[in-house]
């Protein structure tokens, strides 16, 4: 259970808008920076902060979480707690990399753990790339293998711990959100195509990710249950962000 209280809906929406305006002002403060609002959000999971290194070195803007209204600081080692705005690829796509996510097991509410995703949507982000370090439940998987998520099991959701519980935020989507295509087939196919082009050697699978609240790792019985339910990997993040996105 979260150790913090959720905000009233109006207060939460006001905080989202304040955070978005703060980031817009920072992006526009230096005309020489010439960075457009991001179209893609990349959430860097545990130990994966190096993903931000694929951004072009210039122009870049780093913003610490402490500078943004409503952003909380992760208490987990390896989560830097900052946003990096920049460009990526030959087409100079404007992106924002999120170095450090919040987890339900840290005592944060789902309002807080998914807050950055909502703020980025207000900035104009339409695509979210989520990454994490997860435990393999599929016996074919080995440490270091890659898995592209094609579906998920929101296990805490069975007990009512759901990021969309409470008053619906209509400007972010409908009350009853379909999740049958939460993980874009087009983007998954693109990942496999590009992985082949650049010669990635390690195995790459597609599979179902089970979200568990943590912070303990799963018992043997829980891993067996995960396999019976169809999970290939289990972790303590990602799904709340995907549901809100």
UniProtKB/TrEMBL annotation:
Pathway: Purine metabolism; purine nucleoside salvage. GO terms for biological process: nucleoside metabolic process. GO terms for cellular component: cytoplasm. Keywords: Glycosyltransferase, Transferase. The keyword Transferase applies. Residues 39-245 form the Nucleoside phosphorylase domain. Its EC number is 2.4.2.1. NCBIfam families: PNPH-PUNA-XAPA (TIGR01697), PRK08202.1 (NF006054). This is purine-nucleoside phosphorylase. It comes from Metschnikowia bicuspidata.
